[in-house]
Amino acid sequence: MKLNALILLFFVTSIHKSYGQFTYDEYIADLMDQKNISSVRIQEYNIKSDTLNKQSESKFRFDSLGRIFFSSKETSYSFTSDSVIYDKKGNYKTIYKSREKNKLHEKIAIIYDDKNEIELINYYLYTAPNQNTLYNNISFSKKIENDEITTKYFDVKSGIQQEFHFNKQGLLVKEVKQQKAYLYYSHFEYEYANIESSSPSDHVFENICVLQTNRFYIDVLNGRNAFTNRKDLLGKVKRFGEKGKLLETYDYKYDEKGNLIEKITEKTSEDDTIKRAISIYKLDKHNSMIQQKYTFPNGRSKVYNLEYEYTYDNNNNWIKRVEYRRGEKREVIEREIKYKKN
Fold it and tell me: Which of 6, 116, 277, 331 has the greatest number of beta carbons closer than 10 A?
C-alpha cells in the first residue's frame, strides 16, 4: 500500500482502496516507464482455508503519452468504467462513465476558454442508447488575483457556490463550497511539506483541482500529481465549520522518498475538547507499509504488522504481490502488464 497516494482518503472514512482514472488507483501509481505500457490488468484475491477467492478485476489502457484513456473495475456485485478523450492541449475534454458493461451511464463534457481555463462543465445522464439529457453543470463565475493568491469562483446549477484559492505555484491552498438553501458548507485549507516545481502557464493544475472536487478524484492532491508528474506533498490539512471554527486538523510527515510515515489527527468536539490520534507507519524497501502503530485519543495503542512477497518482470515492475498477516497468507494481487512493441 503506497501511503503517499492515500493521505486524503482519511477524509472519507479510513484507508481504503480507490480505483479508476478519476478515483486514482494505488496499484498503478508505481509503474516504471509508463509510456511504454499499453495495458494493465489487476486481479485481487483473498485467501480463506488455503483457497484463493477472487475479489475484483481492474483494467487500464494507456495512450502513446502514458495517459490512461480507459479504466474499469469489476466485482461479483458491481461494474464501473471510465473512458476519457483528451483535447490537443492535454486537457480532459469528454469523460464517459458506465455502471454496467456496454451501457453508458453518464457523460461529462468540459469546455475551456482561450486561456485554457475551465469555463463550463456539463453533466449528462443517458436515458437510452445514444440519448442523454443535461442534469447539472458548473460554470465559471469570476477570478480575483493578487500577488500571492488567485481565487476562482464557480456556480453549480444545483445552487452550490464554489471557490478555489491557488498560490503562485498553482497549488490549491483553500477550497470552499456552500449551498445556503440546504445549509451545506465545506471548507478545507491546505499547507505543503514541499513544493517541487513552479506553476505552469497553461493552468493545468488549477483545471484538475476543479475537476477533482467535482466527482473526479477522491484524492485531491496525489491523483493530480500522478497525471502531471509533480511530487508536491501535503504537510497539513484543516477543515473548518461555517462560522470559521476549526473542526479537524491532519498533520503529515514523510521520509526522504516522500512516503508517509506519520499522521496526526486532531478533532474538536462541540464542547471544544480536542481529541488527538497518531498513526506511525513503517515501510519496506518497496515502499509498502509493513507496520502501522495507531494511538487512540484515549492513549491506547494498537500495532498492525504486515509482510509482502514480490515477483518482478524484466522491466522492474512487480507482477505479483502476496500479503501476510501474522505469518499467514491473506491476500494476493496479480498485475498483468503488457508493453508496447518498439
Answer: 6
Q: Alpha helix locations (H) across the chain?
A: 204-213, 222-228
Q: Does an H or E element contain 177, and which? A: strand 172-179
d(CA 307, CA 311): 14
List 61's β-bridge partners, or say none: 39, 70
Q: Amino acid identity, residue 110? A: I
Handedness of CA 319, 323, 329, 331 (dihedral sign): negative
Cα separation of 211 and 220, whole Å?
9
Is residue 206 within 8 A of residue 164, CB to CB? The reply is: yes
pLDDT at 13 over 70: no
Q: Which residue's C-alpha cell is 442523454? A: 132
Asked if 197 contacts 205 with a C-beta cutoff of 8 angstroms, the reply is no
What one-character DSSP code corresponds to residue 300?
-
pLDDT in tens, 172-231: 899 999 987 777 888 999 998 876 655 555 677 778 778 776 654 334 444 455 545 566
- Model pLDDT, residue 5: 31
pLDDT, position 230? 61
Beta strands 301-305 and 289-295 are: antiparallel
205 close to 226: Cβ distance less than 8 angstroms: no
Residues contacting 306, CB < 8 A, separation 6+: 288, 289, 290, 291, 323, 324, 325
Q: What is the mean pLDDT of residues 106-128?
A: 93
Average pLDDT, the chain: 82
Q: What pTM did the predictor assign?
A: 0.80
203: left (phi over 0), alpha (psi -120 to 50) or beta: left
The phi, psi pair for 233, rounded to 5°, reads: -125, 135
Q: Which residues make Cβ contacts (< 8 Å) with residue 48, sequence separation at least 6?
A: none
3-state DSSP call for residue 272? coil
Q: Which of 86, 85, 83, 84 lies closest to 102 in space, CA to CA?
A: 83
